[in-house]
Amino acid sequence: PTLAVAFAIGALFGGLFARSRRMEGPVADLDRGLAANEFKPYYQPIFELKTGRIKGCEVLARWLLKDGSVVPPMNFIPLAESSGRIQVMTWQILRSALSDLQPLLKANKDFKLSLNVVPKHLLSAGFIETLRRTVMAAQVSARQIVIEVTERDELDDLARAAAVVSELRDCGFRVAIDDVGVGHSGLSRLKGLGANTIKIDKFFVDTITVDASTATIVEMLVALAKDLQMTVVAEGIETEEQVRALISSGVEEGQGYLVSAPLPFPRFNELVESRCLA
Ligand code: C2E
Ligand code: CA
Ligand code: CA
Ligand code: CA
């Protein structure tokens, strides 16, 4: 009888393994990547336009495959989102980022780490609690963490979105509205959300030097931000000419290839140290 039981168990496990082997496709790949901790933070500096001083960084996810290739986020974030894996992935990336940056964050209380969070995750139950626990476990101050969220349909319920933003701010976290100017975000909604920062999309940076109406829009956003005590960060700056145009429109901070592309931690750390920040 023991033999029969052993056989039965063997058959059961064999069946399970065969089934899991048969589970293929992109979502199963994501799960394998998550189990193997293959989703890693890269870091792009955010700098003061007038001085070039590095004020913080944005965490941008990369999928590092075993063969050494690096998968960009547009090839896995949408699937992670639609398959419900984005939550686990986001926490994994945040924990790695906190462990990389902990010394830097502790030595520079003004240095800020910005994390991208999808609206659905932001609004989900327990988000703020898990964020608090994760940040506290790394002994990092909530004031040094910026949650970047893109305005999308999920944030249509302005009252609810604003309540979450307000609760985050009560806990000391900062909130940035991402990709402002493209798509969704009307000025009154921007106002109603109560964030700390607006991030102006690369589109405006690309056109500000060639199109006077872009400069006008950027100046309007800057005026609105000043009014609401928000900071403005411009994304995707590639030239000095763009820096000058942004400064004359009143923008104070930015990020872009001009200073650095997103880097893996060791190279980011070198960059920061070479600028005498650490
Ligand atoms: P985003 O949040 O708007 O991030 C800015 C994107 O612009 C990044 O692309 C960055 O590498 C790129 N970029 C920065 N400076 C320049 C520049 O000077 N020139 C050009 N051509 N591009 C520049 P990336 O890293 O491919 O990320 C794409 C998008 O994927 C992000 O857009 C964000 O929406 C999403 N994403 C990335 N990481 C995460 C993550 O951890 N969680 C979530 N939910 N979304 C993420
Ligand atoms: Ca972002
Ligand atoms: Ca953005
Ligand atoms: Ca963008």
From TrEMBL:
Membrane-topology annotation of the record: Multi-pass membrane protein
Known catalytic reactions: 3',3'-c-di-GMP + H2O = 5'-phosphoguanylyl(3'->5')guanosine + H(+)
UniProt key word Transmembrane helix: yes
Domain of life: Bacteria
Main enzyme class: hydrolase
Keyword Cell membrane attached: yes
E.C. designation(s): 3.1.4.52
Keywords annotated in UniProt: c-di-GMP, Cell membrane, Hydrolase, Membrane, Signal, Transmembrane, Transmembrane helix
Organism the protein comes from: Bradyrhizobium canariense
Name of the protein: cyclic-guanylate-specific phosphodiesterase
Compartment(s) where it occurs, according to its Swiss-Prot or TrEMBL record: Cell membrane
Residues of the full protein shown: 239 to 516 of 529
Domain EAL, first and last residues per copy: 23-276
